[in-house]
Amino acid sequence: MSKWDVAQQLEPLHWIEKKGEILDAEYRSKIEQRSLELQGLLGKHIDCSNPEITVLEIGGGATQLIDFFPSKNKHAVDPLADMYTSEFADVLNPKVQWKQAKAEDLGYEDDNFDIVIARNVLDHVESLETVLSEIQRVVKKDGIVYIGINVFSGPLYIYRYMVKDKEHPYTFSHNSIKRALLRGGFGMLEVVQDSANQMAHFTELESQAFVKKVLRSVFLGLHCYHFSEFVLNKGRR
Question: What is the pTM of this model?
Answer without folding.
Answer: 0.93
